[in-house]
Every structure is written in C-alpha cells, then in structure tokens.
Amino acid sequence: MTIHQVQVLLKVIEYGNITRASEQLGYTQSAVSQMINGLETELGVKLLNRNRKGVTLTRIGEKVVTHYREINRIWKCISDEVNMYQGLDKGQIRIGTVPSIAAKVLPKLIGVFKKKYPNIELLLFEGNSESIVTWLNHSEIDIGIYHHLPANLYFSKILDDQLFVCLPKTHPSSDQQMVTISEIIDSCFIMPNMDCDQLITEVFDEHGFHPNIKYKIQDISTILTMVKEGIGLTILPELSIPDTIPNVSICPLNPKVERVIGVAVKDPNSLSPIVAEFYQHVRNLIYK
C-alpha cells in the first residue's frame, strides 16, 4: 500500500465514479482501476461495488476507508511539518461551514490568513451543522465552523448569532423596537428549513406556543421575498440576514435569543502546523 493509492481511492469515493475521479487526477481510468485493485488484492477483500452508475463502498470498504482517511490526515500532517521546517508555506486546509458563515464570516478570516500564507490552499465545504460534525469525525475536513451541537469534538466559541423577527412593513408589530413571541403567534409563519429550525421551535415551546407554520423553506432569499410580499413572517439568525431588505422590518426577539457559533476540530493536539495556525486564527476572531 502507498499513500498515493489511498488518496486515489478517496478521490474515487468522493466522486462516486472512476471516470470522473480519473479526469480530476489526470490519470487514465485503467491506471486508477489498477491502483484500487492493488489495494483490494493486498487486503484480500473487495472495497468497492462497481456498476454502470458508478461505485459504492462495500460493507468492509466503509470500515476500511475510515482508517484510510485517518492515514491521509496523518500524511497531511507529516507533509505540513516538513514544509514548515523547510520554510515553505504550502499545504491544504479543508474547512466545513454553513452558508451564512461562509457568506459573512469566512471572507474576512480567509482574507487576513491568505495575506500571511498566500500559498496555502483553502478548500470550503458547505453543509448543515450535522454534516460538518460527521465530516470531522470521518476526517473528511480539518476544521468546522458552525453553530454548536453536542458532539465528541473540541468546540470553541467565537461569536453569538442573535435571532431576529423579519416582518412585512404592514404587520402591526413592524415598527416596534423588539418583538415578543406572543405578538406573532397568530401570524402566518415561514419556518426556515435550515440549522436554526430546532432552536426556533424550542423558543416557541418555552413560551407555550405553537407557530402557525404554513411554509417550510430552505432558501433565505425566497423566505425574505415572501415576507416582503406580506405572505408571512419568519425568524432568522443575524448572520443569515442581508444588510438591507426593502419593505421588511427586522426586530430582535424579546427576550433576546442567541445561538453559539464556534470552530471545532477532532483533536487540537494532532493538527498539522498549518491547520493549527488557521485554527488559532479563527479562535482569535472578534466579529464586528
């Protein structure tokens, strides 16, 4: 087994297709197939199910690939150690985050970091918080930035993300400084089908109310357009709200409700030097 074989297998799994993986790697399909066959022969088990639609992991393949991902992570750490020793600022950091953070927090973080380390490649993977936790546990990413979830990971808070009520200008409470749950309970509610939906449900439950949910929508722009047209109102985290929205009032909840945004890693003591540098860079964030 070579690390190159491992990396080729992981790329095939990522794309679910030998042809697409070959194109990305710059190899022939035959060469990629031979490397995977070599791994299977060495182990004495079949790692992939192959069919016309692509490839999937076998049951033993799923277990083996977990260790291969860890081997690849360790190899990245070794490479980064050597690069840092030789004074070379090169390497790769895989970052998992949710869309709202990618839009409002990461640009500033990445901009400052890239000025110091221009040759470091930063790869972004967007998903929900549950996906990011899974990616971290499987060593598919190096760092996750998301709202806090109970998980067996090292999570450090970097900022609070306050919830706001978004109302059409025609709503009776649209000109208030703050809005209570009781003031919106009878209104048509548009539930964001995203990371914050559980927290919003908990807020209603704590006040003994059930929202009048008529729509569940994932896309933020669609939700806010519906609010603008007077179809209903919604509650969103501050990071998800655009800076300006015509004909929509943005009011904080009373009492204040916030969710914790932070950075997480699998084990801070086993990070490569360059990943550890970015990890500390994020932890030092003061969001304004």
From TrEMBL:
What GO cellular component term, any one, is given?
cytosol
Q: Superkingdom of this entry's organism?
A: Bacteria
Q: Which UniProt keywords apply?
A: DNA-binding, Transcription, Transcription regulation
Record has Acetylation as a keyword: no
UniProt keyword Transcription, yes or no: yes
- Domain annotation HTH lysR-type: ranges: 1-58
The molecular function terms of the Gene Ontology recorded here are: DNA binding; DNA-binding transcription factor activity
Q: Which family does it belong to?
A: Belongs to the LysR transcriptional regulatory family.
**Mind telling me what this protein is named?**
DNA-binding transcriptional LysR family regulator
